[in-house]
Specification:
Helix content: 10-25%
Largest sheet: 5 strands, antiparallel
Distance between the termini: 17 Å
Number of strands: 5
Strand content: over 45%
Oligomer: single chain
């Protein structure tokens, strides 16, 4: 939520959701790409996340600060 990313949500107009398609310069095509893009990152690092917003496939870049989930 803090980063502005949307999980899948049914609305009156259909389904809204975001898909991560890039982390920094890395393009994300699957889970392994996503996992690998965060390798070597630390808590507090800031990264640019490219997201594709659905419906409409509008692409946006947001900056997020990484935090460890326990």
């Amino acid at each position: 939520d803090k980063a502005g990313l949307r999980s899948m949500k049914e609305t009156t107009g259909g389904v809204d959701f975001d898909v991560i398609v890039g982390i920094g310069e890395e393009r994300i095509k699957n889970y392994d790409d996503l996992y690998g893009a965060f390798e070597g990152q630390e808590d507090g690092d800031k990264v640019e996340v490219m997201i594709e917003r659905h419906p409409g496939k509008k692409v946006e870049v947001v900056e997020v600060e990484l935090a460890r989930l326990d």
